[in-house]
Amino acid sequence: MGTNPEHIVSVPESRGEPVTWIGRDRPFERSPEPPADADLRSRLAVTLEASGVNRWRTIGALLAVLLIALAAWKLMGGGAKPQPALADRGSVPLVSVIVPGQQAVTSNVTFTGTIAARYDMPIGNEGDTGRIVAVYVEPGDQVKRGQVLARIDDSVLVQQVHRLEASLEQARAQAALSAAEYRRAEGVAAAGALSAEDIEKRRATSITDAANVKVVAAQLAEAQARLARTHIVAPVEGTVLTRHAEVGQIANPGGDPLFRLESGGEIEMRGQIAEQDLAQVQIGQTATVFLTGIDRPFTGQVRLLGAIIDPQTRLGEIRIRLQPDAALRPGAFARAVVQIGKSQRPVLPQTAVMADANGSYVLVVNPAGKVERRPVRILGATETGVSIASGLTGDERVVATAGGFLRDGESVRVAPAAPGRTPLASTP
Questions:
Q1: What angle (nearest 5°) sits at the alpha carbon of residue 298, between those of residues 296 and 302?
Q2: Is residue 351 part of a domain?
Q3: 360 burial type by CB count under 10 A (0-12 exposed, 13-18 middle, 19+ buried)
Q4: Contacts of range 186-189, beta carbons closer than 8 Å, 24 or more positions apart
Q5: What radius of gyration, in Å, describes the C-alpha atoms of the chain?
Q6: 378 and 387 in contact (C-beta within 8 Å)?
Q7: Residue 326 scores a pLDDT above 80
Q8: Domain residues for 320?
Q9: Tens digit of pLDDT for each residue in 412-421?
């Protein structure tokens, strides 16, 4: 019995690994495996080779970024050399100074207030309630004492007065008749024609009728007084300030004033001043009053100083007597300046005086050419500058401006003054 011939398979291309073919006539032999440590070394070598490539790539990218940043920095001027600070230059600030000396300074107290009439008299209805039927004056009119300002309806009171006048005539006639009968009774009393009782009755009737005349006369006087009060008149001579009366208005006694009258035309300014200023002002001192919208000032005198200080505002009352003027209208806002004295004081420009939490101060250049801080007390502001009450004698060299850029103890150079001028500015 024959056997099938062996099937020969084509040998595939080798991929670099040894291949062992097993036939019937050849026993199976396993190819030897490489040792484990050799395989680990080969893998580690491949990994190190890959990491080395990545590291060089990263270094190259970083170098490229640094080159780009350096180029941009140079384009933006970063390569310029830094300028030295002012403190490192070694230069000394150049300043201008002023020697204030002594000037005549007027001490003033300034306050605000309003113009008012010295005697502001309210005028209202003193009689019975009635309707106003006529008004004869307007605000600003000059009136005399007793002049009628307005009239209230008196139609009822006039009739009452007429009735009482008639009653008075009747009572007088009756009193005259009773008095005549009593005289006749006394004439015949000696003859015994009338009894003593009749004579006494006639005497009582005469006395009663005479008293009735007085009663009616009093009633008539009352009615006439009520009738007179229907005419609202000016109690004094003066100027009408306000008018609140209108024809047809009901005027009630004790209600709002119908008119306000400035008695005698006297005008004053009323204001309030600080507690410390009130102690320096005296009655009779000259005051200058300024009104809004009027260029010319008005001269007056201190007429009254308040007797108390308001505990809430710490202010006291002051009144300035003024001469009557058409421009001085009550209610106008005013500002007053009271001159309290004159003295010799240093005067500095406002730019030379500074202030901080410790108070006002100036900077003085000492003989050594260094800046010193000098505390000062300000008396007030004038048209020429700030007057100094204490802290300076007037002979010091005071930094005129820009003192805030200097430090206490800093060395400075004093700029020469221009010919014929006092330096008022500085250049630090």
A1: 155
A2: yes
A3: middle
A4: none
A5: 58
A6: yes
A7: yes
A8: 110-118+264-342
A9: 888 886 554 4
